[in-house]
Design brief:
With about 400 residues, the chain is mainly α. Helices cover about 75% and strands about 0% of the residues. The longest helix has about 45 residues. It is globular and about 50 Å long.
């Protein structure tokens, strides 16, 4: 009997430190910044604040592979963690809307560099035949702090104030910089054939990216507007929903990683999109505690399944030289979706209210369900090595 190639190596465990720090730096203020902005301005301004974060992230993600070829993994991670954390301290001195937008945009650049450089490095550290399971483990490492940090933000504001949240947002990524020198220092291979520009023209990569972006748009709506939409319900509903959504996402991602390596990643796409649609539609019942909590949970499972399935599928469709471009493209899909959802629904809320805006968000994901069904057809998944079908796993 042949033993499995181990996933938990020392470099991967060390890399987990910056994964946790990045998750905390991103998620802790994610629901807080819209609250902070709404206290200073309008609901549409709350959406623009997170939209600035996410759209700046997208622009920087697409440029990060070129940055990696110049400065390498360690310097890129250091720069990313610095830009993700330090700007939050500016909000202690200046709470103006213009400052909020500038801080969030700068933090978006830092987040982009951190997740793109780190994602490419992480993929290289995971055995190819256990990629889905390895990415699920990494998702668990990122998911647990997100699970705690996302609801902790609004709770901490109520108990300690906005200042404490901003200090923690800065401190955690900055402290993690101390671990970066111990990571592998090799640079990604430079290969124009597998760059971001060519990836954007590659349908085998763009289809999973578009499917995931559709679900991510609903995630942007959830974290930005759910605290405002259910303000009339009991005080525990928002923390509970913001806890259950990432908890369910983490479990869904783990399930997808275990199953996808054995059964094929494409088979998970339709269930993932369907759960995302149903969950978002349920949350349109903003006056019902049961619908809001159940909807956040169902959406979380679907979102987690799509996170792991689409990323594993995209890595399986390129050689190692393309890992940086895949990391950039997948993370850009994540953030374009979240940013577009946050911005667009801000205007829908102003015209129609929260419930109808949430229903329209659910309806906007239906074309992704059709695309997911097409992607899972046999002719689009012929080759396990190229199309992301299950690679043989040693017994």
């Amino acid at each position: 009997m042949t033993s499995q190639t181990p996933i938990l190596t020392r470099p991967l465990l060390l890399r987990c430190v910056s994964i946790v720090a990045c998750a905390v730096g991103f998620y802790l203020p994610l629901a807080v910044i819209p609250m902070f902005t709404a206290a200073e301005g309008s609901h549409s301004g709350a959406g623009l604040a997170n939209g600035a974060l996410l759209l700046a992230t997208v622009a920087a993600e697409l440029a990060t592979p070129r940055l990696l070829s110049r400065i390498g993994y360690r310097r890129a991670l250091t720069l990313g963690l610095l830009l993700l954390g330090a700007p939050a301290l500016v909000l202690l001195a200046s709470p103006s809307f213009a400052t909020i937008l500038a801080v969030n945009a700068t933090r978006g650049v830092g987040f982009a560099i951190t997740v793109t450089a780190g994602g490419a490095l992480t993929a290289a550290l995971i055995p190819q035949e256990r990629r889905g399971e390895g990415l699920a483990f990494v998702g668990l490492v990122a998911g647990v702090p997100a699970l705690l940090a996302l609801p902790l933000g609004p709770w901490a504001v109520g108990h300690w104030g906005y200042e404490a949240v901003f200090v923690l947002t800065a401190a955690v990524p900055l402290l993690a910089i101390a671990t970066v020198p111990g990571l592998p220092g090799r640079d990604p291979a430079a290969d124009g054939e597998h760059g971001v520009a060519s990836s954007l023209r590659n349908g085998r990569l763009m289809r999973p990216a578009v499917i995931f972006a559709a679900s991510a748009s609903a995630a942007g709506v959830l974290v930005t507007y759910l605290p405002l939409a259910v303000a009339g319900l009991a005080g525990w509903v928002v923390p509970a929903a913001l806890f259950l959504q990432p908890a369910a996402s983490t479990l869904g991602r783990w399930f997808a990683g275990r199953l996808g390596d054995r059964r094929g990643q494409t088979r998970l796409l339709v269930p993932g999109v369907a759960l995302s649609v149903l969950g978002m539609a349920a949350m349109a019942g903003t006056g019902s505690t049961v619908l809001v909590v159940a909807g956040a949970t169902a959406f979380g499972v679907g979102f987690g399944v799509l996170q792991n399935a689409t990323l594993s599928l995209m890595y399986a469709r390129v050689p190692a030289a393309g890992y940086g471009a895949v990391s950039a493209l997948w993370n850009a899909a994540y953030d374009v979706g979240m940013g577009a959802g946050a911005i667009a629904v801000g205007f829908l809320v102003a015209g129609f209210g929260f419930g109808p805006a949430f229903l329209m968000t659910a309806a906007s994901m239906l074309p992704a369900l059709v695309l997911a069904r097409r992607e899972s057809e046999p002719e689009l998944a012929r080759s396990p090595a190229v199309q992301g079908e299950p690679c043989p796993v040693p017994a």
